[in-house]
Amino acid sequence: MAARADIAPAAQADTEPVRVRRPLPAWLILPGLVAAVAALWIWLAWMDGHRLGMASTLDLQVYYDGGKALRSGSHLYTGSYTWVRLPFTYPPFSAMVFAAASYLKYAHVQIIMTTGTVLALLATAWLCWGRLGHRASLGRLGATLLVTAVALGTEPVQQTLAFGQVNAWLMVIVVADLCLPDRFRAKGVGVGLAAGFKLVPAIFIPYLLLTRRWRAAAVSTGTLALTVAGSFALFPTEARQYWGGLFFDSSRMGGVDYLGNQSLHGMIDRALHGGGAVQAVWFLAAGTIAVAGLLLAAREHRRGNELLAIVVTAVVGLLASPISWSHHWVWILPVLVLGADRAWRGATARDRLTAALPPLAALLLFAAWPRYQGPTQGTIPSGIIWGVPYNNDAEYTWHGLQIAQGELYTLLGLAFLAVLGMRAVRERRAAARRPDA
Q: Per the domain annotation, does 316 fall within a domain?
């Protein structure tokens, strides 16, 4: 009973945040400020000394050039961009956004993207603490700064900043949207916009349906449809190319077998050495994980654990997507908030230590550790996954612990869902044995 005393009734979960018994102390603001300033200073110092490896913003250059191509009437999806000749792979709606951004100088867009990414991480942490029931206070601000500082040291966030990626922006849009009360009529707009910009966030639409939030699901679906309709109205050629089948071609986003692809598709492809059965096995595995994971997310929502349900849905999307680059796993930030909150709510020091161990282990495994990258880049932060051979089909030569290391994020995502699934089964059996069940 004590473990559930701080949780709001499930019937109120959609409109009321989870209640916690102890407020976050105001003194957290001091270590939070120190940690945030130190993390930013260290990152800026590393970046200034390793611009080739940590400040290339390669993906941002693709977005920017793609926006310019769309604005100038060039063929968006048949062109290739930057010195490595990468294609533009996102929906036309995202190109429309970057077409507007391309009126600015690229250096200014870099500053906006980098600053916005850090602010998005801060905003996500702030919203997550709020969704767990912590009211606005100095303690909540300190906890937000602490978690963001820690997240800045993880490989997905480091990669997001280095490539100029949009992951943190999309995450905060989705989290902000889903943290709105269900009575708010515009709830669902954020999910729809994120899905229109990049398809993977559309996984939150079936989540809304399974949790019977029909209006929010309809709003998100309608918003997504408007982004598609708008692209057909303004840029019909590009819209026909993309929605006519181009979005099915995952090979445009890069090699499925590449180490950086931390999804089920990548893991299965590497395990089967790219054989003909990859697609069939992936469809079966991804479908199973999607159904089971979304049912778990709906269960956590009913129990009043809305933030956990959001994270579960995000992990399902990362696992089931054909391509989930390591920098897509910025959802480690809400996981850290969940773990820190659970540890804070522990009744005894032993309970708090036990609760802190899983998120601490996740942090160590997702961390960006200094690693020598050769004479060109020197020593820069790098994730554990990058310590195995990769490129030129080297992924097919892994053996023993190399497999676990190379598939680390995918395996951790599967383990996360498995633990929640086993807990659900255990609790269901325990409930069935109660006389009043």
A: yes
